[in-house]
Write a structure and sequence with these properties.
Mean pLDDT: 95
Low-confidence stretches: none
Number of helices: 9
Strand content: 15-25%
Largest sheet: 7 strands, mixed
Structural class: alpha/beta
Oligomer: single chain
Order of helices and strands: EHEHEHEEHEEEEEEEHEHEEHHEH
CATH topology of the largest domain: Spore Coat Polysaccharide Biosynthesis Protein SpsA, Chain A
Helix content: 25-40%
Shape: globular
CATH architecture of the largest domain: Alpha-Beta Complex
Number of strands: 16
Length: 284
């Protein structure tokens, strides 16, 4: 079994460190495609590259087994970045991973054991914990635990396959290949104890860039709510002390009016625990 991890990234610090550490020992190869898409050039250097130290970090990340392939450029859209990665992989599974997604070691073992026992699996989906303004709370909504909002992350790969869209990721097989599907759902994976940590709403810089990116892609309003107003009035103003007041006025996840925060009672991946402790000390 050869798993090719694919990561597309712009300004991935600091979480890219822990993302890479969580997958390195399980990877056959890791293909990282870096650079800005058209609607995210505002967050990039003039040449379209990361400006937060991501490039320097990737180039110095310990890679004793030469697993990492690093590709840079300016891109029209994220699907183009994913398809560029496919030109450089030689594994038989593709595992998409964002630079702010981190897996526990036992979760990785569960997935790999499952694939080893059933080579007919063509796709695996997951539900994440989307963390909010730190590491104690995550975004909760009944809608987020439904099939349309599961994360399509792992695909069986055949040479000539390509991604036809990014939202959600959809991999088409080359002509002549069987279109049989054996999908392991996010519900099944959650039943196996696999629900990865997605540190996507932790830092102000992250959330600002996401908000502005989606503003430029359009629409600027969701559920009648202006995205940037939501960022300023909800995300920036929210604290653990005033959370009930803020959440009565604004949805925590702008895509669903019934979303709120929930206290996280699980364990974070070991690779990020020291960072979390430092983060909390600096916030006191």
């Amino acid at each position: 079994m050869k798993i090719s991890f694919v990561m597309i990234v712009l300004n991935g610090m600091p979480f890219i460190e822990f993302s890479l550490k969580s997958i390195y020992n399980f990877a056959y190869e890791i293909v990282i495609v870096e650079g800005a898409v058209k609607d995210c050039l505002f967050a990039a250097n003039p040449n379209g590259s990361s400006k937060d130290g991501t490039i320097e970090f990737v180039k110095t990340f310990p890679d004793p087994e030469n697993k990492i392939k690093f590709i840079q450029g300016r891109w029209l859209e994220k699907c183009e970045m994913q398809n560029e990665a496919l030109k450089h992989i030689s594994g038989n599974y593709i595992w998409l991973i964002d630079s702010d997604e981190v897996y526990r070691e036992e979760e990785m073992c569960t997935v790999i054991d499952m694939l080893g026992q059933d080579n007919s699996i063509t796709q695996v989906n997951f539900f994440p914990y989307n963390f909010w303004k730190g590491f104690d709370y995550y975004i909760s909504s009944p809608a987020l635990l439904t099939a349309p909002f599961s994360f399509k992350r792992l695909f069986k790969f055949a040479p000539g396959s390509k991604f036809t869209q990014h939202r959600p990721p959809t991999l088409s097989k080359p002509k002549g290949e069987s279109e049989k599907h054996n999908v392991v759902s996010a519900f099944q994976m959650m039943g196996k104890g696999v629900r990865f940590c997605h540190y996507s709403y932790v830092l102000e810089s992250q959330v600002y860039e996401k908000t502005e990116y989606h503003n430029r892609r359009g629409p600027t309003k969701v559920l009648g709510l202006d995205r940037m107003k939501w960022y300023k009035k909800c995300f920036l103003k929210w604290t653990s002390e005033n959370r009930e007041v803020i959440e009565q006025k604004y949805p925590i996840w702008i895509g669903n009016k019934n979303s709120c925060t929930k206290l996280f009672e699980g364990n974070h991946p070991k690779v990020i625990v020291n960072y979390i402790e430092k983060f909390k000390r600096n916030c006191v």
